[in-house]
Amino acid sequence: MHYDPIKRSLGNVFNRTPWLRRLFYHLLDLLLLRTWHVHRELRQWSKGRTQDPLTILDAGAGYGQYTYWLSSMSPKWQILAVDVKEEQVADSNNFFRQIGRPQVQFAVQDLVLYQEPNSFDLALSVDVMEHILEDVEVFRNIHASLKDGGMLLISTPSDQGGSDVHGDGETSFIEEHVRDGYNIHEIQQKLRTAGFERIEARYSYGEPGQVSWRLSMKYPILMLGKSRLFFLLLPFYYLLVFPFCLLLNWYDARTTHDSGTGLIVKAWK
C-alpha cells in the first residue's frame, strides 16, 4: 500500500490552523508506539541539558512532530529539521513561525548528500532509514555532522516482522519501504562502517506493541486505502480502540523485548 497519499490527506486536514496541527501532534504522540519509545530515549538524553545551547538535527522530519516536542523541552536548543518534500518543509516553517519558535528551521535536504561537519549534539532519525537504499552513506553523513560525543537516535522496523513482513513470500505493508526491516546486528555493523564506535540497540514493538499497531495504524490505513469516506468513520473507530491502544503502548514502552518488529538504536561519535 502507498502510504504517502494518505499522509498528505491527513496533513491537508490538520494543517488548516495551528490549533489543529498541535492537536494532530498530540494525537500522534499518543497513538504511535514508536513515539513512546523515542520520547523515552530523548528524556534520558536531555537530563541536565535543557539549559545548554545545543544543536539538533531532525533527519527526515516528516510532519515535524518530533521537532515540535523537542522545541517544547528547551528554547535554548537550535533545531534544524530536514526533509525531501518541499511542500511539507514550507508548511512546517510557516507553522513554527506562527507559534513563535524561531529556534526551529526546516530545510529541503537529501540525507544521502547532506553533511554539516561537527555541527550537531543530537541527530534523530525516526522511521526514515527503511525508505533510503543508500543507508551507509546517510550514516556517514550524520556521523560527520555530529560533534564529538554527539548521539544518533534511530527508530526503524526490524526483520522480525517489521513492515508487516513475516515470510519470504510477503512484501512490505508500506510500499515506499526499500527494505522490510533491519537485522539488529546488521544495522550495528553498518553504523560501525560509517564510523560510530559505541552502539546500543534494542527491540521495540513486542507482542503488546504489535497488537496496538494493528489496531491503531494498520487497519485504519487499510480502510483509508479503500476509500477516503472512511475518514468519516475514523473518530468512531478510535473511540472504541483508543483506550486499549494506550494501555498496550504504555506496557510495550516499559518492557524489555527479546524480539520485536521495531528497533531503537543509539550510536555515539
TrEMBL record:
<dbReference type="Pfam" id="PF08242">
    <property type="entry name" value="Methyltransf_12"/>
</dbReference>
<keyword id="KW-0489">Methyltransferase</keyword>
<keyword id="KW-0808">Transferase</keyword>
<dbReference type="GO" id="GO:0032259">
    <property type="term" value="P:methylation"/>
</dbReference>
<dbReference type="InterPro" id="IPR013217">
    <property type="entry name" value="Methyltransf_12"/>
</dbReference>
<dbReference type="GO" id="GO:0008168">
    <property type="term" value="F:methyltransferase activity"/>
</dbReference>
<keyword id="KW-1133">Transmembrane helix</keyword>
<feature type="domain" description="Methyltransferase type 12">
    <location>
        <begin position="57"/>
        <end position="152"/>
    </location>
</feature>
<protein>
    <submittedName>
        <fullName>Class I SAM-dependent methyltransferase</fullName>
    </submittedName>
</protein>
<keyword id="KW-0812">Transmembrane</keyword>
<feature type="transmembrane region" description="Helical">
    <location>
        <begin position="229"/>
        <end position="251"/>
    </location>
</feature>
<dbReference type="InterPro" id="IPR029063">
    <property type="entry name" value="SAM-dependent_MTases_sf"/>
</dbReference>
<keyword id="KW-0472">Membrane</keyword>
